[in-house]
Each structure stands twice: as C-alpha cells, then as structure tokens.
Write a structure and sequence with these properties.
heterodimer; A: 320 residues; mainly alpha; MetI-like fold; two-stranded antiparallel sheet; 13 helices; 3% strand; flat; B: 301 residues; 14 helices
Chain lengths: 320, 301
C-alpha cells in the first residue's frame, strides 16, 4: 500500500526519460533515414556500377560467357587504337558543336522576342516548347526520311530550287547536320525559356538607363542582356555538353541498321559502346570505351566552362 | 562609367520613370510584326515534321518514293494506324501500357524520395549535410553510359533482363530531383512552422508528413511532370535491356516497328504519330505548368 504512491511517479519519470531519449534519437537519426533511399539506390545502380566498370574494363569479359582473364590495359589499348573509336570521337564532337552553338544563339533570339511585352505570351511560350514532348526516337524516324538521300523532302526542295541534292546519309558533315537539327528541334525552345526566365530578372532600369544613353535595341541586347545572362549561358552550355556527348537515340534511329552509317559517318561514342558490348559481345572493351567517354565528357565540360566564362566576361568588360 | 555620367543617368532615369508613370506604361514596347513572324516561323518549322509525317502516313508504301505527298490527311491514315496496332511484333497497346507503368512508378518514386531528401537537406541539421548534398549534385555529371555495362551484368544476375523492373529500378531516385526539392523547400518552408509542430509534440515523420509535404506540393507536381516525360522518352537503357522481349516501352517498340517494316514508311510514320499522342495530350493539359517549371527552375538553379 505504501509503496504504490512512490512507484507511480517513478514509473512516469522513467517513461518521460524514455520518451526523451526516443525523441533525441528521432531527431538525430531521422535526417539520415530520409536521405538514405537516394544513397542506397545510387550505391547499387550508380556508384557500384562505376567502380565495377573499371573492374570489367581490365578483364576479358564476354556478354554471354561472363568474366574471363585479367588483361590489364589491353581493352583500353584496343579501343584507343581502333580507328572506329577515333571516328566516333570526331563524329560526337562535330554533332555536338553543330547542335549546341546554333541552339544557344537561336534560343537567345527567341527568348529576346518572348521577353518583349508580347501578346498571348502563354501561347507563344507553349508553342516553342512543344517539340520537347516529342520522343527523340520518333523525331529520328521522321527526320531520317525527310533527309533521305533519294526520296527525302529536303532534297526535293533543293532540286526544285535547281540545286544539287545532298547526301544526307552518305556524307559525313551533312549527316551530322541532319542529326544536329533533331537535337536542336527538341532543345532550342526549352533553352529559350531558361534564357527568358533569366532575362526577366534583369532590372528594367538597366535598359532604361541605356536607352537614355542612346543605346539601340541591338546594343542593349549585347551590352546588357548577354553579360547579365552569363551564369545562365554557362549552365546551358555545360548541361548540353553532358547531354550532347552522350547522344544515342537520334543517330541510332537515323537508318534502319543503327550502326551509324555504312562507313561510320555518324557513329557516335555511345553507339560505339553499344556496338562493342552488345553487337561484338565484348563487355570488357565496352567498359573501357565507357570510361574513355566519361573522361571526354569531363574534359569538354571543363573546357566549355572556361570558354563560356571567358567569352561572356569579355562581353561584360566591354560595357564598363 | 564615371561618376558624373552616372549621376546624370540617375537623374534622367527618375525623370523617365515619372513620365512613364504618367503615361501608364510599365514595360517595354511590344514586338513588331518582325518579332511575331519570327516566332511563327520558329513554331512552323518545329511543327512541319509532324505535318509531313501525317501526310506520308496517309498514303501507302509508294507515297514516299513517288513523292506524291498529299495536302490533307487521307483515308489510309487510319488503316496504317490499325496495321501498327495489329502488328504481332510491335505489341502497341502493351508497350503503351508498359510506358505508362514505368513512367508513373518512376515519377512517383522520384517525387517521394526527392521530397524526403530535399526536406532533410534544406531544413534538418545533421553531420555531413553539405558534403552529401554536393556529392549528389556532382553525380549529375556522371553519364548513364558509364554504368551501363555493370548494370546489365547485375540485371543478368537478377534475371531481370527483358522485364520492366530492369528499367524502373535504376530510375527510382534522381539527383536532379533531390537538388530541385532542396532548393524549393529552402525558401518555401519557414522554420517557424517546423518548430511549432515540434513543440506540439509531433514526431519527425509527422512533421514531414503534415507540414513539409503539403507545402512541397507545387514543386513536387512539376518534378513529377518532368520525370514522367523524361522516363517516357528514355531510350538507351530500355533499348539495351528490353530489346527483343515482349515487355517493351513505346520508344523501344518504335525501333522494332522501324526494323520490321523498313520498306513501308507510311506504316512506320503512322506508328510514330500514334506514339507521340500520349505526351501531346499531357502537353495540352500541363504545358503551362511545364513552361512555369522550366522558368522557375532556371532562376533558382
């Protein structure tokens, strides 16, 4: 009888203590619990494969037979001395330049018009974004026929203008132009909206001041808009580098064979990786090529970052 | 600019502002006909390929060779589409359903896990927070190709090659999504709200569920939309693992169609048109949100 009154508070004290520890534990552990799904899935499908790619690249590794002997740098030697690799590198680079440079210029021009006090602005913004929702594979199938060497509508137009038809599939540079145009179709409007958003946060006072100083429309665009857009331009160029150097869908579907042309005219690095691994069934060499592609992307990503920085900073220096 | 001209400019500016206020104009001039024609031309060029395919798909296998392209869709369009749907190798409906399943599951998973991580990274304090966030952002630069070979080996081991989970599993989380939600919640969710919930005795998860989640909804919806589209059009990895199986997504089914019927381009383009309809419907209803999402992401990112 006499023990009960003392026991009850004791128990509740212990309960409160327990609750406190639980809460403290909750506060400490929960954040890690929240971010863990990303790291678990990434570890399995991202981090582990990246390390494992290195492991595979040092082995003879067949798609069907699996792991073979350790061969050191042999796979890298094979890829680096393979003329097809060098050709793919050239094609990838060429397609990338032909797609990213005109794309940024055109997107800036579109954004500049959209940035004016335009009527029905939602309509125009949606209009330029429309190609973004069209599957690249579908676009490639359409363009492969529009750019057909014999029967294509593009050559038809050229002929009706009394010009010579162009070998859009047979020749190297024309095929790159055709593939770059598919990439441009999908991303120009998207990037224009990114530029537009950045343009709209430029203080209007800058333009008004320039107007008073007598700067025309063109001058205002190059001396105010472009320098102010610098970080955005860098962002767009770097992301398009990462995406552009991986291009696969468009060149893969540009003809019915998917090998990048009879002579590898438009074979890109990713098609080359696919060919090594899933046509030649040599995963070791494919892994080596994948690592080389990664290095190429990092290399050009950094170069582009520096280059864009340089170009847009000289632009802003000109205004001061 | 030296000081005197700047002062002069400032003065002129205030004068101009006063005049503007008086006239009621708040922004720059409207674009002239050049601007509108330029935009119309851009959109026309972008739409032309679809129009052209519609015309070719309205003919038969000789249309493209003879270059007798119609001006209006013809009766063959529906027949060609039916032939695509009935094709025994393309599995059109099944592929559409598969694309829908994959895209919905991936979008839902990415949205949930990104919101969870974004909430932790923007509002909770824990050791290694910044380092881990930078790590996630850095993974954005890693190309898919780098992981493709081992991923395929893993899928062989798991006996998942040729099944939908092989496409879903690697896409369940997204570094971009985590980054996006972190940025959004950092500004949109006030600390006071979280503290209030904590003082009222809500557990950590309860706080997330009843406070953070409702506030995150607009950004989460946009993220879901983008991931849905991105997953829907994805080709490289699905092609590697699903090619030749009966469980294909739409882009992979399109590649099968193009290979099996390569001499009947009216049929192929009918299939192409069919395949782009679902996303066009999405665009019709959510295009405005897409525009908003891209523009908001651009300013924050």
């Amino acid at each position: 009888m006499t023990t009960t009154p003392t026991k009850a508070p004791e128990r509740s004290v212990r309960l409160i203590a327990l609750r406190k520890t639980l809460t403290r534990w909750d506060v400490k552990v929960t954040p890690y619990f929240y971010i863990s799904p990303f790291f678990i899935v990434f570890a399995i499908t991202g981090l582990f494969p990246i390390i494992y790619t290195a492991f595979v690249s040092f082995h003879d590794w067949s798609l069907i037979g699996g792991q073979g002997d350790y061969v050191g740098l042999e796979n890298f030697r094979f890829v680096l001395t393979d003329p097809k690799f060098l050709g793919s590198l050239r094609n990838t680079f060429s397609i990338f330049i032909l797609s990213s440079a005109p794309q940024v210029v055109l997107a800036l021009a579109i954004a500049a018009v959209l940035d004016m006090n335009i009527r029905a602005k939602t309509f125009w913004r949606m209009g330029v974004l429309l190609p973004y929702v069209i599957t690249p594979v579908a676009v490639a199938l359409i363009f492969s026929r529009m750019f057909a060497d014999q029967t294509g509508v593009i050559n038809g137009v050229l002929e009706s203008l009394h010009m010579n038809p162009i070998g859009w599939h047979a020749e190297v540079l024309p095929s790159h132009l055709a593939i770059a145009s598919m990439i441009n179709l999908r991303w120009t409007g998207y990037n224009a909206l990114i530029f537009l958003a950045a343009m709209q946060v430029i203080p209007r006072d800058y333009y008004e001041a320039a107007m008073i100083d007598g700067a025309g429309k063109v001058r205002r665009f190059f001396s105010i808009t472009i320098p102010q857009l610098r970080p955005t331009i860098i962002f767009v160029v770097v992301t398009s580098t990462i995406g552009g150097l991986q291009v696969f869908d468009e060149p893969r579907m540009y003809d019915q064979y998917g090998t990048g042309g009879s002579d590898g005219q438009w074979r890109t690095l990713t098609i080359y990786i696919y060919k090594l691994g899933w046509v030649d069934t040599d995963l070791g060499r494919a892994a080596a090529a994948a690592w080389l592609l990664f290095l190429v992307i990092i290399f050009f990503g950094v170069i582009n970052l520096l280059l864009t920085r340089l170009i847009s900073s000289t632009g802003s220096r000109g205004t001061k | 600019m030296n000081v005197t001209t700047r002062e002069a400019a400032d003065e002129a500016l205030t004068r101009l502002k006063r005049r503007r206020k008086a006239s009621g104009a708040t922004r720059e001039s409207r674009p002239g006909w050049v601007g509108y024609s330029f935009l119309s031309l851009v959109i026309a060029v972008a739409i032309y390929p679809i129009y052209w395919s519609l015309m070719i798909a309205s003919g038969d296998e000789t249309t493209i060779v003879k270059r007798q392209v119609l001006a209006l869709p013809g009766p063959n369009l529906l027949d060609n589409m039916r032939a695509v749907i009935d094709s025994p190798t393309v599995h059109f409906w099944q592929s559409t359903l598969n694309s829908l399943i994959v895209s919905v599951v991936v979008a839902a998973s990415v949205v949930f896990f990104s919101t969870l991580s974004g909430y932790a990274f923007s509002k909770l304090r824990f050791k290694g927070r910044n380092g881990l966030l930078y790590f996630i952002i850095a993974t954005l630069a890693v190309p898919t190709q780098l992981a493709v070979v081992p991923l395929f080996i893993i899928m062989i081991r798991l006996k998942m090659v040729g099944t939908l989970p092989s496409v879903i599993l690697p896409a369940l989380v997204s570094a971009f999504g985590v980054f996006w939600m972190t940025q959004y919640l950092r500004n949109a969710l006030p600390f006071e709200l979280i503290e209030a919930a904590r003082v009222d005795g809500a557990s950590m998860f309860r706080t997330f569920w009843s406070i953070a989640l409702p506030i995150a909804r607009p950004a989460a919806a946009m993220l879901g939309l983008f991931i849905f589209i991105q997953t829907w059009v994805n080709f490289f990895w699905p092609y590697i693992t699903l090619k030749g199986s009966s469980a294909t997504t739409l882009p992979v089914a399109l590649s099968t169609l193009a290979n099996n019927y390569f001499n009947d381009y009216s049929l192929i383009l009918a299939g192409v048109l069919l395949s782009i309809i679902p996303l066009l419907i999405v665009f019709l209803f959510a295009g405005r949100q897409l525009v908003k999402g891209i523009m908001e992401g651009a300013v924050k990112g």
